[in-house]
């Protein structure tokens, strides 16, 4: 299966935080032929190792869970499902088609939105923005009893209806590229170095619950104890309307992004210098970004860095427009160049100690 086809399969699979099993199955299937050892820990992290020539360990980590999910909190008398947001933007909820993961399988619903004719003019003038306690999912039920007969209960997960489309100029539109693009980068890089000698033990981790506060990364790092680690994730872009100039100097189509800092930490100068030197040596594009306040952004890297005795960490990001919504956009060339850079890094592990 090619990289584009595998990305499509990953995008169309459901993996809300804490319920990553569908993506986990794909990751296990793809990694098992490529590694010397593979396991799933008690949290659900997939941890796989390629044995290297030294006793040092280099870890790659990309999260399995997706960036838009809800949780059912109440079923009212009319059969409407009330919910809370697990992850995703408030303003991207209304009118969305969703999948409710019920006891009798996955069924379709919609986050109800009154016709504009029914919204008072004063509310429209202010900008219609209902609170969560006014939002609901219409699953077709006529009553609470009907909804329960259909298999719906409190605590069930709700995910966005999945889609994957190819647009012009090599651009891809789909759900949860955060962080299916990180997973595909990690898997494809391992495919391309398969059966090659690596200088360190390379451990790849497909983590869980990153979107709930990097909850899977710390237990995985505690187990692996990496000397070095790179988180693979997405970067916001500043190349579309309504972004303050200079806030995010990242553009679609200009290659992978090196994270210098985010609101939780600054990344390792030694690793960053090494990655920049590898990119320069092989004439591969590399953007850089520092995502500090007022930008609310973080990756698994910060959690890995502080686990046990600590690690040198950095993050490589794929430029992604509109993530944490149900329609995000990436460019295929950025994915390909991210994989190429990661492969060259894995082939240059012996050079880390000479950088920074």
What percent strand?
25-35%
The percent range for helix content is 25-40%
Distance between the termini: 39 Å
Structural class: alpha+beta
Reported CATH architecture of the largest domain = 3-Layer(aba) Sandwich
CATH class of the largest domain: Alpha Beta
SS elements, strand count: 17
Count of individual domains: 2
Uncertain residue ranges: none
Name the CATH superfamily assignment of the largest domain.
Zn peptidases
Strand order of the largest sheet: 1-2-12-3-13-16-14-15
Mean pLDDT: 93
Order of helices and strands: HHEEEEEEEHEHEEEHEHEEHEHEEH
Note the main attributes of this structure.
alpha+beta; globular; 26% strand; 9 helices; six-stranded antiparallel β-sheet; 2 domains; Aminopeptidase; 356 residues; eight-stranded mixed β-sheet; single chain; Elongation Factor Tu (Ef-tu), domain 3; 26% helix
Give the structure's gist in a few sentences:
The protein is 26% helix and 26% strand. The protein is built from 9 helices and 17 strands. Helix 7 (269-281) links the parallel strand 14 (257-261) and strand 15 (287-290).
Description:
The mean pLDDT is 93. β6 and β7 form a beta hairpin. This protein has an 8-stranded mixed β-sheet with strand order 1-2-12-3-13-16-14-15, sandwiched between helices. Strands 5-4-9-6-7-8 form a 6-stranded antiparallel β-sheet. With 356 residues, it is an alpha+beta fold. Helices cover 26% and strands 26% of the residues. The protein contains 9 helices and 17 strands. It has 2 domains: 245 residues, 3-Layer(aba) Sandwich (Aminopeptidase); 92 residues, Elongation Factor Tu (Ef-tu), domain 3 (Beta Barrel), CATH 2.40.30. It starts with a helix and ends in a 10-residue tail after the last helix.
């Amino acid at each position: 299966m090619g990289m584009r086809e595998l990305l499509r399969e990953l995008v169309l699979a459901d993996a809300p935080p804490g319920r990553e099993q569908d993506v986990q199955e794909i990751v296990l299937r793809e990694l098992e032929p490529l590694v010397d050892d593979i396991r799933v820990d008690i949290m659900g992290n997939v941890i796989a190792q390629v044995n290297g020539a030294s006793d040092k360990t280099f870890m790659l980590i990309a999260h399995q869970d997706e960036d838009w999910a809800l949780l059912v909190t109440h079923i009212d008398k009319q059969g409407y499902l009330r919910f809370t947001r697990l992850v995703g933007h408030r303003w991207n909820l209304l009118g969305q088609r969703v999948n409710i993961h019920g006891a009798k399988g996955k069924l379709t619903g919609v986050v109800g939105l009154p016709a504009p004719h029914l919204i008072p003019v004063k509310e429209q003038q202010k900008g219609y923005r209902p609170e969560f306690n006014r939002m609901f999912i219409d699953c077709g039920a006529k009553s609470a009893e009907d909804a329960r007969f259909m298999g719906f209960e409190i605590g069930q997960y709700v995910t966005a209806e999945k889609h994957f489309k190819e647009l012009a100029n090599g651009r891809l539109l789909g759900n949860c590229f955060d962080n299916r693009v990180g997973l595909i980068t990690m898997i494809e890089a391992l495919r391309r170095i398969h059966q090659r000698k690596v200088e360190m033990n390379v451990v790849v981790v497909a983590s869980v619950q990153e979107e709930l506060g990097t909850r899977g990364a710390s237990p995985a790092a505690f187990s692996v104890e990496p000397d070095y680690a790179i988180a693979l994730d997405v970067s916001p872009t500043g190349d579309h309307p309504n972004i303050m100039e200079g806030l995010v100097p990242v553009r679609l189509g200009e290659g992978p992004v090196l994270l210098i800092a985010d609101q939780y930490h600054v990344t390792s100068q030694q690793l960053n210098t090494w990655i920049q030197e590898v990119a320069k040596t092989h004439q591969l594009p590399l953007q850089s970004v520092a995502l500090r306040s007022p930008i609310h952004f973080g990756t698994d890297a910060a959690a890995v860095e502080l686990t046990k005795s600590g690690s040198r960490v950095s993050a490589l990001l794929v430029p992604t427009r509109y993530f944490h919504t149900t329609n995000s956009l990436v460019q295929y060339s950025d994915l390909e160049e991210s994989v190429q850079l990661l492969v060259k890094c894995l082939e240059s592990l012996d050079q880390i100690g000479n950088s920074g």
